[in-house]
Amino acid sequence: MSQQSPQPRPRLDVRGAVDLSALSRPATPPPGAPGGLPAATSYVRDVDESTFGDVVQASTQHPVVVVLWAPWSEVSQQVVADLAALAQDDGGRWLLARVDAEANPQVAAAFQAQSVPTVVAVLAGQPLPLFQGAYPREQVRAVLDQLLAAAEANGITGRVAPGEQEPPAEAEPEPALPPLHQAAYDAIERDDLPAARAAYEQALRENPRDTMATAGLAQVGLLERTAGADLRAVREAAAADPADVDAQLAVADLDVFGGAVEDAFARLVDVVRRTAGDERERVRRRLVELFEVVGGDDPRVAAARRALASALY
Known about the structure:
Distance between the termini: 47 Å
Low-confidence stretches: 1-26, 164-169
Shape: elongated
């Protein structure tokens, strides 16, 4: 079973690996709650760091497919949904283990997951990488068929025992957003970026320390700069002239928008090293703005901040 890279996305889509409105959106409900993933079943279980060992042990009896997903990633939620449907179709020939990668970083680290979704099989306690990123359902079916054949060849032919699942806990109601933040979020949802910008700017006038508004404004800026961009043309322009600062900034924006966050940060840190004066300051400000988009607690941001400091000093 070879691991295949996800196909490039044909057009920009805010629903990809970086959810640009995540900081202004209420958290995704847990599985089984309204608006969340479907409830667990006999063949689809939610696994965390405390129950991960049970899943590994179960892989000595039947194949286990672990999907590392994140609530902000609609791509990963679609992959989870496809896998769940296939698990039900196969009626216990394998178990699907859903793992929220952000809530369970030790499990994600155990599988060396660099992005979501990441899908890994476990057979007799041994991990077998399957695929990452978006994957057509018919190709997922083919990968699972190969997994089942490998399991049979290794004498792992047990089935998941059907049983009752505990009822999902009721989700705590999310606190209401402040009015201006709600107005900005609603504007983003209807693709009215000027209105979203105005709402966030008003929030910052009322409270200059409103970090959520600062991040939201950075997200809106990224959406404005990437709207209607031709990905191929932007990349070709940047490759043709590495000294063109505007072209490098444009590629970095598109990389963050598409989820290639580390590539974007590395590109702009390199530009900071090669420039001076006003151009260097302009690139530094854009990089700091992109840090706001991704989130200050993201480890990729922390690493890029260190690289930026080294490039500046």
